[in-house]
Amino acid sequence: MKDIVRVASGQGFWGDSLEAPRQQVEGGEVDYLMLDYLAEVTMSILQKQKERDPSMGYARDFVGAIESVLPAITERGVRVVANAGGVNPPACAAAIAQLTASKGVAGKVRIAVVTGDDLLSRLDELLEAGHLLANMETGEPLSTIRDRVLSANAYIGSTPIVEGLARGANVVITGRSTDTALTMAPLRHEFGWGETDWDRLAAGIIAGHIIECGAQCSGGNCLRDWRSIPDLANVGYPIAEGAADGSFVITKHPGTGGIVSVPSVAEQLVYEMGDPREYITPDVIADFTTIRLEDAGKDRVRVYGIKGHPSTDKLKVSVAYKAGFKAVGTLVYSWPESLDKAKAADAILRQRLDRLGLVFDQTLSEYVGASATHGSLAESDGVRDYPEVQLRFGVRGPDRAAVERFTREIAPLVLNGPPSVTGFAGGRPKVEEIVAYWPALIDKSVVTTSVEMVG
Question: Which of 206, 276, 329, 446 lies in the 20 to 30 Å Cα band around 241?
Fold first, then answer.
């Protein structure tokens, strides 16, 4: 058993730096590369792609990431764990198998694909069996929007990933696993942590939580002393150096930009934390109030003392469903009286929409540059004139034709509204179908995962 296992974060979301995976495996010693691609909105996007093309539905950037780290996998033994499978893990695994074959290294790359999180084909069966899949925010049963559901995926934990690693995979691909499981699974596999070793499992979850968002814990998007953070153009992505007792150090490769400090790690800890005493995952409940942070040298923070509790009998389910249509248009007004002009344009546009009898579920006006971020609070600072203000006007509703008509009403304001329009960003607004998010819970007993070796 290794004394230290190094898990490097190479992606914090789908769209993160394309260079990060290669830089992580080439910048110094690592044992595992963790790539986190999924968020709730990502699942919706991937499902729409799969609807158009059944061979799609996964994070295609992952193929390029694997290509860039193939030497590390095949020659140095670095293993990769990723949830890039999205809503179509088998297709993702097939794409990686095709890549490795084309590079002549198929025999050196053993792929495990984890399935079972996708509940879409089972929804009617589950509803009939009494699983309401009620919205966690509103309490409404899923049956109220069943005919509009696009995807339904349970958040799975580390167990099937550990199985894939135990079966010799050096690339493990999942669908909707928890972000934290991607880091915890390698530590659990290497150190042999049991399913009821709550404190160590919780430590693995916290390690995963800290590095799941990539460079956000190593200087990116950091509030404290952000001006003093060095060389963000070359920011180093984080690495968790785990020990068998559950303690770990967060660090980054020498010579990279950014910073790993107690404040930078603490900021990431409170990201999407919820109740600090009960950070619930499929594997364990972690108690954030027990976490201890300690400066362990330049760009090194030791994390220890973490306590965990038995997991619940539920899994969270992410459901995406069709929720109408939307369109957003923008107009930029220049000084003088830029905010007044934008507000006048907003009022004119609303009057014209009313005159046309167009009804929407929601309309939204934002004055970017004046109050879009802080709303009415922004006007309390006494500032009444700005160099430029962007009117951002959006509508949403069930009638595509009504939304389409709105897109034809904002452009005329360029010539028949207030003066000094300096930008009509993007031309006529595009009508988009809304894919909404429905969070729910389901009994763990009805979700069964499987692990298949590919190639």
Answer: 276
